[in-house]
Amino acid sequence: MIEIHFQKLVPVLAHIAISPSSREVWARDPYARLMDTWVAYGTPSENEELFRQSGFTEIRTEYLDLKGAAMTRGKKPWKSTS
């Protein structure tokens, strides 16, 4: 749903909402970078796997409203260096 929102809905709504003098800037699709960032962030399951590979335990992902953002947390066992 987020991809559809960024790729389809936001550009149309922005085009309607902005002034004609600003449309040249919007024609360059500033949301493309935002979408690239969103995709590069990875899915919660991919992030959980990265946590596991890094030695974290008790990994859980919490979603913010409408699952538009997620926070993955885990615990990393402490190892004495002495």
Task: Provide a concise account of the structure shown.
This protein has helices at residues 2-17, 23-26, 31-41, 44-53, and strands at 57-63, 70-75. With 82 residues, it is an alpha+beta fold. Strand 1 (57-63) and strand 2 (70-75) form a beta hairpin.
List the helices and strands and how they pair.
Layout lengths: L1 H16 L5 H4 L4 H11 L2 H10 L3 E7 L6 E6 L7
Antiparallel strand pairs: 1-2
What does this structure look like?
This protein has a two-stranded antiparallel ribbon with strand order 1-2. It has 4 helices and 2 strands. The protein is 50% helix and 16% strand. A hairpin with a 6-residue loop joins strand 1 (57-63) and strand 2. Helix 1 packs antiparallel against helix 3. The protein has helices at residues 2-17, 23-26, 31-41, 44-53; strands spanning 57-63, 70-75.
- Alpha carbon gap, first and last residue: 50 Å
Strand content: 15-25%
By DSSP (H or I, 4+ residues per run), the number of helices equals 4
Strand order of the largest sheet: 1-2
Mean pLDDT: 80
Q: Give the uncertain stretches in residue-range form.
A: none
H/E series? HHHHEE
Structural class: alpha+beta
Please name the defining characteristics of this protein.
82 residues; elongated; single chain; 16% strand; two-stranded antiparallel ribbon; 4 helices; alpha+beta
